[in-house]
Amino acid sequence: MKEIITIKEYEKIWANKNFKIFIDKNKFKKLKDFIKANNLDNGLKFFKIYENCIIPQNFIGTINVDNISIEIFPKIPLRKGNKELEKERFLEILEYVETFNENIFEDLEIGTQNMPILEIFISNFVKEIKKIVKKGLVYSYTNKSENILYFKGKLDLTNHIKYNFIENKFFMNFDEFSVNSIENCLIKLGLEKVKYISTNIENKEIIYQLLVHFEEVDIIGLDPTVLFNKIIFNRKNDFYRKSLDLAKFFLLDESPYSIFFNDDRGVTGLFLPMETIYESYIANKLRQIINKKYSDKFSIRIQDNSHKVFDDCRHNGRKIDYKKNNITFFRLIPDIILESKNEIIILDTKWKELNNPEKNGKIYNYNISHEDIYQLITYIQIYQIKENKNCKRAYLIYPINNNEENSLKESILFKNSNLEIGVYFVDLSSEEKLNESLKSILNDI
Length: 445
Description:
Elements: E1 3-8, E2 13-14, H1 25-37, E3 47-49, E4 53-56, E5 59-65, E6 68-73, H2 83-94, H3 117-135, E7 140-148, E8 154-155, H4 157-163, E9 170-178, H5 182-197, H6 201-212, H7 224-230, H8 241-251, E10 259-262, E11 267-273, H9 274-294, E12 299-302, E13 307-308, E14 314-315, E15 318-319, E16 331-332, E17 336-339, E18 343-349, H10 370-386, E19 390-399, E20 412-415, E21 420-426, H11 431-444
Parallel strand pairs: 1-6, 18-19, 19-21
Antiparallel strand pairs: 2-4, 3-4, 5-6, 5-11, 7-9, 8-9, 10-11, 12-17, 13-16, 14-15, 17-18, 20-21
Organism: Fusobacterium nucleatum
Protein name: Restriction endonuclease
InterPro entries: McrC
């Protein structure tokens, strides 16, 4: 049975048993080597490494080191209660992130499973494949070129002369109705990968049982990226969709919303950057609400990258061709643009907790980053100029800490005659609460 250690973002993992959260020195070294080998401390900045401690940064996920699974949960609690409720809510949030389709986790009974997040992904993957096996694998015509004893399809004359100068065979090119469909190849590739990753006995048992049904599927030399680019869903294969979405997660390793590593050190890591997930979740929920109820008031743009701070760059008097040299000239990418008939309003999400001045000596800067405010002011100025439309308002959207009685919940506004910068808070504890929060923001602005 795997030991599960549960921590939050920014909590320290020690190599010293005198601390509450620790792993032995051998496992600590393995974890440190894994982080450095995959550039998770410098490039991706998922960890800070010190001599005797490792600090996970701004991500949620699971790290497996031998017989220990370290689970990292959000620093800002999504729900009051135990870790299973927290896990359940987190997976609900993932359904609104681009990498994961809506309802991808709908059949998962999280409350009855004491599994790390990675094993939950694997469990759902194999459950979806069980449904496929029960319904029957998709067959498709695949092109083959083989040296055979009889005519079938078209004679490949070049290879026939090359290989059959004396032999009594025919080198034929033909289509064969085969189990080697793109869908089945991707499923088998996914099963073969999770077979080595999973440490859950039940999951591993199901994986081996399922692989029996894919014995005839040939995956030697196949590139999953190429296969995913070829697949087209239709009525015939649509029941594969959920399983292939999850297969993509394991096989392609990385997206803006999830990064997956495993290596020969016996260490596996699933990393879900919380800032990016929160940003995508809020944006997609807002789009859903606006399309249903506020389409007459607002249109919405997400991750709009249509404007740059500067249009021209010169080096020693010589104009630089930004298109030819792939230069962005400080391209702006606000999280969310709301546009009405007469106005543009900018929204930016921030995965952090602000200070309540009632708890912090009545200091009313709320711990809002100066850089965040300057960024909003820049957005306002550039959009006002570039879009030739009134743009004087921008707002930050922060999560409410539901475990803190004095957590900030009410909006904060800073304004002068030319602009208004504000802060709104959203309740992430349930879909219903979040919808209420977002509707309240839309009504207020």
